[in-house]
Amino acid sequence: MDEFDAISLSGKVVIVLGHFGCGKTNVSVALAKALSHYNTTYLVDYDNVNPYFRAADAKEYLSRYNVRVVAPEFANTNVDIPAVSPYLNTVLLDAANGASAVIDVGGDMLGAVSLGYIHDKLKALDPVVLFVFSAYRPLTETCEQTLAVMSEIEQACGFKITALVNNSNVGSLTEKEDIESSASLAKELCRTTGLPLLFTSYMTKETPAAEGKTFRIENTTRKLF
Prior knowledge:
Blueprint: E1 2-3, E2 13-18, H1 24-35, E3 41-46, H2 59-63, E4 68-70, H3 88-96, E5 100-105, H4 108-112, H5 119-123, E6 128-133, H6 143-157, E7 163-166, H7 176-181, H8 183-193, E8 197-202, E9 213-216
Parallel strand pairs: 1-9, 2-5, 2-6, 3-4, 3-5, 6-7, 7-8, 8-9
């Protein structure tokens, strides 16, 4: 069991997909922070579905690490509407020249379908496509359910998933045993799909015992209450 080192993703475009509420944003923020140690890094808020928990929330946090957060102009305002940042083309151009870019995409097929706007440009950059799952979210509690969600997202965005991320948790009540209990789902998904498990993420004080890499992340989404 080793801690995940983001250097394997340095200089790449990383698309982060997943089911609603699986924790894509916290994973995306953690990846951007880790990648910032190696080169110029962008975090793109591409969530056109959920106006409440989004990568733009972490702009101040990530500024400490010189991560450039790119979000729609009206993100986190009273007129928060589906939109694409005009700076996105700049991000993709820099990525083509060696910068790292993490793209946090909205949940399920509704969010993934919006990638069609930049599909060809992304495809030319040979992106890493991550699917984040949680064994404790509705519709991804079993292998069969999770595979169905993955298939819908792939069809909607036009990209094949290249690796899995286990972000199983029960919020602030999570114990390391909860994460460890999700290992069987992770193993079954890897066996069925033939995809690698990039890492198992955690926020607990103790590092969970998990096969493969583990990755400590933080909760950077805003508090609603």
